[in-house]
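Recall that a protein's primary structure is simply its ordered list of amino acids. Everything else, from secondary elements to tertiary packing, is in principle encoded there. The following example makes that idea concrete.
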Amino acid sequence: MIFPFLSNKAIDGEAVLLRGEALGHRATEIPVDLDCIVYDHLCERDQLSIDDELDLPDEDGDEVLGKTLVREARILINGRLKRSGDVGRFRFTLAHEVGHWRLHRRCILAADEQGSLFGEARARDVITTLNRGVVGPNPPRHEVQANRFAATLLIDPKILSREFAVRFGPEGAGAILNPLRHLTLRDRGRRLAGHVVRSSPSLAAAFAVSLEAMAIALESRGYLADGPSLFQS
């Protein structure tokens, strides 16, 4: 299925709306209470079920991180992520699948409704997230959109600006980044995401996300040099 173009503003708005719906006055706290958003709010309101215990087999030679089953109202997260102890990667994957649920479910259901009018086959309703769709080059449009949603849900831009200033001050991170110009943009982002300044935890630790997720957020929000981003669509 070909998913429609969504502007970054629309994607960010949907993520901020969900965070506000679920958390209310706690929406600006970090790390974001993702359990409350998913298990207390979405599972209750949308009758959504989450299964994070199954080992999902690889597909096309790549690791399957998660699946969103639209008609079953079910999200699967590869159980290996939870058992690995990498909380940041698990949280980003769950938020990514929630992005598919919020952004793409309506497209599939609308295609179903239109197809039924003309006797056409139902649209495929399983969205599979492969590892390369999250961190690899040239990801499909719907994966770019889910990445954007996940990062905005977990890393509010205004709070990121505040926390960045706490760690790097008005001069920014130039002193750290300038010696790293030989690295790729993403590698620079990872270094900055994991950098511990004074007594403050790293940005990745403060938001309880992986270095990769924070690097993507820093890149897309203009904290690094110009370059390609997984958020482009």
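The chain has two domains: 8-154, 157-220. The chain has eleven helices and four strands.
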